[in-house]
Structures are given as C-alpha cells and as structure tokens.
Amino acid sequence: MNDLAFAGTDGIIILSVFAIIMLLIGYLSGRGEKNLHHSLSGYYLAGRNLGFIALFFTLYATQYSGNTIVGYAPTAYRTGFSWIQSISFMTIIIGIYLLFAPRLYVIAKKRNFVTPTDWIDHRFKSKAVTLLSIFLMLWGLGNYLLEQLVAIGQAVSGMTGGTIPYQIAVIVFVAVMLAYEWMGGMKAVAFTDVMQGIVLMIGIIVFLIGGLYLVGGNFSEVTRYVAEMEPAKTAVPPMEVNINWLSMLLLVGLGASIYPHAVQRIYSAQSEKTLKKSFARMAWMPPITTGLVFMVGIIGIMLFPGLDKTGSEQLVGLMANEIAAINPFYYWIMIIFFGGIVAAIISTADSVLLSFSSMLSNDVYGKFINPKASEHKKVMVGKVCGIFAIIFLLWIAWNPPGTLYEIFVLKFELLVQVFPAFVLGLYWKSLSGRAVFWGMLTGAILAGLLTWTGYKTIYGIHGGVLGLGLNFLICIAGTLLAPAVSKNKVLEEDLSAINLKA
Amino acid sequence: MEDRTIKEPIRKKWIWIVLAIITLGVVPWYFPDAAAEPYILGFPLWAFISTAFSIIMCGYLSWLCVNEWNIVEDQEEAERAKGDKS
Fold this sequence. Notes:
The complex is a heterodimer. Chain A is mainly α. Chain A has helices at 9-30, 40-44, 52-63, 66-70, 72-79, 85-111, 116-124, 127-159, 166-214, 219-229, 239-257, 260-268, 272-282, 285-288, 290-303, 309-313, 315-324, 328-369, 375-397, 404-415, 419-427, 433-452, 463-481, 489-495; strands spanning 457-458, 461-462. Chain A has one domain (9-397): Sodium/glucose cotransporter. Chain A is built from 24 helices and 2 strands. In chain A, strand 1 and strand 2 (461-462) form a beta hairpin. Chain A starts with 8 loop residues before the first helix and ends in a 7-residue tail after the last helix. Chain B is mainly α. Chain B has one domain (9-85). Helix content of chain B is 58%, strand content 5%. The two termini of chain B are 35 Å apart. Chains A and B meet through helix 6, helix 10, helix 11 and helix 13 of A and helix 1, strand 2, helix 2 and helix 3 of B.
C-alpha cells in the first residue's frame, strides 16, 4: 500500500480525528475512577463490570484486526474459493469457548483471577507448569503484538501516500495507544473498541459495495471470469487442502479462544448473561466480516489479474484507490475506511498489550519477584514494563518479516500448547501437573522445531496441531500412569460441578 | 444431573456430536470434482454448500450460547435485582 494516490493530507486529517477521539475516550473512562489504578482487577479487567455493548465490541474489535482485511483479502486472491474457510475458523472459536468459558467464568469470579496464569497456578500449584505457560503465552502475545505494530506502520504510510513515513506512523499511534491505556486500562480499551469496531464493520461493507460496483455489480460474473482464467481457484479443493482446512479449524479455534486477552474478556464480563449474549452475537460475525473480506479478495482477481505474491499483498490499497476514484462520496468513505483499518489494528494491539502487561505485573512480578507488593505497585510495574516491551518490539518491527499471514500462523503454534492444561484441568480432577508440564514442553518443542525447519505443515496438518496432539497424548498417558492425588479442598470444590452454584 | 437448573454445554454429548457433523459439512472433502458447477449466487456449488454449513454453524453456536448455558445466571440476576431495589 505504498502508492495510495487518493489519500495524503485528507488521510492525515482523518487519522488525527481518530487519534483525538481515542484519547478522549481514554481520558473519560479513566476520569473519576480512583480505584482504577489501585487494583489489578480494576485496571486490567475494568472492575469485572463490562456490560453487553462494551463486551461485545471489545470481543469483536480484538478478534478482528486490520489484518483481517489487509492480510485475508490477498489470501483469498491467491487461494481462491477455498479461503471461505476463514468464515468457519473464526466461527469455531465460539464453539471452543463453550468447552470451557461457562465454568471458567464462575471459578474466575469466585477466586478473583486476573490473568489466565492465575487459573493454571490455582489448578496445578506447580512452579514449572506456571513458568512454562507464562513463557508460552508471553511468546504468543509478543509475536502477535509485533505483527500489529508492523501492520500499523504499513497501513498508515499507505494511507497518507507515504507523507507520514512508516516509523513516525508507528510511534505516533503507539503513543496514542499507550496514553489512553495508561489513563483508563481495560475500560479505555473496551470503550475505544466500541468506536473502532463500528468503523471496521461499516468500512468492510462499503468496501465490498465499492468493489462490486467496479466489476459491474455482479458477483457471478466474477466467478465465471475466475473459473475461466484460473480454474484451480474455483475447483473443488484437493484432499490436502481439506486436511489443511480442518487443521486450521483446530489451530485457530483452540489457539484464539485461549489467547490471554480473550480469556481476560471472560473474566471481565459483568455477568453470565452479558457473556452469553456477547458470544451469541459474536457467532454471527464471521460471515459479515471475514466472509465479506473473502469476497473482496475474489473480486480482486478480476480487477487486478496476475499479481504475484508481493503484488497481491497490496491488493486492498490498489482496490481502495480504484474505489476512491468513483466519486467524492467513495473517496471520503475510503479515507475513513483506511482510518478504520488503522483503528482496528490499534484496537487489537491495545488489548494484546494490556494482557501482556497484566501478565508481567500479576504473574512475573506478582508471583515470582515481589509477591508482597501492593496492587498499586503491581499495576505500575505492569504499565512501565509494557512500555519497555513495546520499545523492544518496535526495534524488531523496523525489519518486518515475510507476509502477514505467515506470522499469524506462527504465533498460534506455541500458544496453543497451553490448551490441555487450561481446559482438561477444568474437568479432570486427577490430571497430573507433571504430565501437563512434559506434554506442554514436548508439544512446544515439536511445534517450534517443525516451524523452524520449514515444515510448517505435514500433509496439510500444521506443526502446532501435531505438537498439540503429542501434548494431549502425554497429558493423558502420564495421568493414567500416575494420577494426581489432590488434597486441596478449594480445588476439589471448584472442580465439582454441583458446587458451581454455591 | 442432580441439579436440573445448571446447564453446562460440556456435559451434553449431543452438542458436540452435532458440532462435529456440521464441521464435516463445512470442509468440502465429500465433493466430486464436477461439483465446481453450477454457480449459485456466484459461488461454485461446493463453496455454496460449504458456506451454507458455515452459516448453520454460526446459528447453532449462537443458539447454544443462549439456550444451553446457564450456571449462575439466575443467581446473579436475582442478586442484581435485589441490589437495584436497595
């Protein structure tokens, strides 16, 4: 997106307006909340009091980033119709939530959990398991945050036609994000998500309408064109693609649902009712988000045939240029849309950063370095460490790696290894901490090695899924051989479903 | 099932069997090569059916969230109502 002729000064104006609105929301959500900075759950979980609108939009804007558009449309362009898998792998996440969120919500509220590690620690009381899962989760989060930082820069410099160079763009937006997050914590993140989510939703719909307009308004024509020029993109997918699809459902479903920031949204819900309602609405979002982006990518095949891999990564920018040239209405909508992409990236980055610093403050500092510190101090440590983490990641981000999608798969490979500990632990009383530790470690090593040596998939199955299979196997076999005998009354109570109500 | 008012999705097998069946419908492994045509609403036949299953999945999961999940809701809502009055 380096040659967007349509933007420039107008782009800078819209971006500045967005930045000011975000700062204002951050300021307003932090104002008058004295307890916000003195309590971990106040700052990181918005006092466990997010209502339906805020919770729904924060789930939405966090799950769907600017990458959903900028990265997925080119993928649809390159792979063709089999990329409708992006609807199903975003939907299945809700199904995986149903495996554990109902019970986790109750236990988390009862035991005042702040981070996902609190549950792992409460469940296994094992330093090894806790440390390893902190490492895996921070690794996944760090990589995810890095990806967002790279994306912010590309989107902004694209939108302003290079008027604002990549580095300055990132620094300005990261500063805005840090400022509102500092002022309002999770509350600011959730409220800015409402604005960012709405802009993203409208943006995608208008973008698709613009795209359809450019190809004469008939999607069937596009498909006929694609079938004629590149029949492989409309053909029934071969078996390996189908296996890969299934593997993608597992990897994204299991990985995205236990993202630390996703788990913390379960903790933040005001009540079971709001949580249920938000998930029920979220289940309908993939068709109108990734589904529409998929159609945009397919339309791109007809508008800009024959782009290579690097060229296709610019697809959204290229299309936006054409759409903006239709008339002044589309011109302004496209500028707002690009602002929306930036907003969507920020809304994901802020949540990831908040989660990252909560783990530094509550888990690393609060559990291992200085457990006796006051909550106020812990919150401060998290905020400051978060800033250092960002500086470090920015330093890496100046040399952005490969294409966006490839980094996206990488971050799940290790993170997903926490899944057995997290979910089996909720239901299986004799699950042993030792088996969990070795399963997690072996799974992570296998997944890491496969990715590292270039075997990202074997017969279409992702390295992370293979690692997870081994991980589950070790957890189950290890526990059956030497089951854990727990004398922990509190845990016993949490794990018996009948007591859930008490 | 001692306590009939508690509804937790993990405890009902049928929920997961139905989800697995829908998932098998989403992944287009069962189509012959000829299923690329006809086009329905601009989608190749196989893609149309797969998308239809994806939308069924959305509806099913959304329905499950509302109807098959109820652990502390009644208690929370009762407390909230009490809190509002006082």
